[in-house]
Design brief:
The chain is of the alpha+beta class. It has 3 domains: about 55 residues, RNA-binding S4 domain (Structural Genomics Hypothetical 15.5 Kd Protein In mrcA-pckA Intergenic Region, Chain A, Roll); about 80 residues, Alpha-Beta Plaits (2-Layer Sandwich), CATH 3.30.70.580; about 80 residues, 2-Layer Sandwich (Pseudouridine synthase), CATH 3.30.2350.10. It has 7 helices and 17 strands. Strands 7, 8, 9, 10, 13, 14, 15, 16 and 17 form a 9-stranded mixed beta sheet that branches. The protein has a 4-stranded antiparallel beta sheet with strand order 3-2-5-6. A two-stranded antiparallel ribbon has the order 1-4. The longest helix is centred in the N-terminal third of the chain and has 10 residues.
Length: about 250
Amino acid sequence: MNKKPISVIKPPRPESVRINRYIASSGICSRRDADELIKKGVVEINGQKVTELGTQVNPGDTVKVNGKMIRNERKVYIVLNKPKDTLTTTDDPEGRRTVLDLVHDATTERIFPVGRLDRNTTGVLLLTNDGDLASKLTHPKYNVKKIYEVRTAQNVTDEMMKALVEGIELEDGFMKMDSVFLIDPASKKDLSVEIHSGKNRIVRRMFEHLGIEIVKLDRVYFAGLTKKTLSRGKWRYMTPKEVGWLKMNK
């Protein structure tokens, strides 16, 4: 009696990694986005188009995305106290200063800012090449906590603060802050606000909607990170403990 041949699936080599993880480790995107790139047929290993999401990358393999070679990089995590007049981007066609200009000597790996702070907003900013972590920290469902200190041009009334907490209808939807309070009861122009939304310029837009002009906006807390011990424009590496805590809590 003839037996049917048994299909044997070879286990991956211990040092190999899944293609989506390899792409995410290069810093260009998250693993979920890497899966989409594979589905689009723009990923190659050793010149062969990748069609299976579970494909393994072995040491010495050449991986290309959209025709450009990528490499698995060591993870880098940097906290920056962003100064004013600095763009939160990787480069600027007009040659204006970017946050990467401030950390140019920190690493040879290709890092990028997580989220955005507008040009004149200061404060804590994370830069990394960890695509998975960056994706989680900027995804709305994770409700990442952010705290800003705000200085306004005019006094802010109790009614205005109440409106910010109860919510405001903006052009892109209903927004509200988690808390708003005066830093010093003697000043009606210095406030602390907590918010979870990651929408572009959300704090400035909410204040502007109420006719309040912001003259200073400083992010003092982002996902558990602060800018303590960092003077404006300075940076530091995150500790392994901080990285582990950030990943564990996301």
